[in-house]
Amino acid sequence: MAVTSADRADALFHALSDRTRRDILRRVLVGEHSVSALAAGYDMSFAAVQKHVAVLERAGLLTKRRHGREQLASGDVEAVRSVASMLEELEAVWRGRIDRIDALLTEEN
Amino acid sequence: MAVTSADRADALFHALSDRTRRDILRRVLVGEHSVSALAAGYDMSFAAVQKHVAVLERAGLLTKRRHGREQLASGDVEAVRSVASMLEELEAVWRGRIDRIDALLTEEN
DNA sequence: ACAACATACAACCAATTGGTTGTATGTTGT
DNA sequence: ACAACATACAACCAATTGGTTGTATGTTGT
Known about the structure:
Chain A has helices spanning about 5-15, 20-30, 35-40, 45-60, 75-95, 100-105, and strands at about 35, 60-65, 70-75. By secondary structure, chain A is α+β, with helices and mostly antiparallel strands. The first copy, chain A, has one domain: Winged helix-like DNA-binding domain superfamily/Winged helix DNA-binding domain (Arc Repressor Mutant, subunit A).
């Protein structure tokens, strides 16, 4: 049941691994968009786009806010930064900065 | 046939979306390891680990070098940085810095 | 020379993914 | 009031994924 940081990393990188989702994220980082406004931009069904939005939401990369009958999605830049941090940690490993301390901070916590 | 930057991004984020692969990447960023040395660290078959290494290699996150009968894998920190850059670009979109110029640099080039 | 080792890859399998259409449920504007 | 709209989600499907075992092919150390 415990959601580990590895689970979070899995969900974040998986969410980012699809180009449609990266594009949606780009748009909602600029500003709020309803699910249908987003869906209008892609050559696939509304349901497909709605699922992509749900994947981004579950990963924490966007949040939704009700506004009448619409759900307005906005990108969460903090989540994007948390992914960037994971990569910086990898760069730090490369630089040899971390060595053994690394065992405390990585994957299984 | 053309490998777009979107294809590269797909491969990079997909490669990073598995915790075993992130762990392998961490190890090969510290130093060279043969495929069997890597495989010894995980509770799965040699073949499974060999496939994970191949996924990382295809994404460009590690390179292999022959040494006798071994293949020594090392992490490519530049590839890690290129992923970090994509995230920085997303943060820049959020800051509103990019606006329309963005259209030139993103996804489809 | 050759047995043991290191790797690659094929064939297979169950689970997951990214798409589809259809249906149910709220919300709104006239 | 109610038709039209916005969303969510179920059921389905083909393709991909992450694992397995087995086999082929090099390379090495004695």
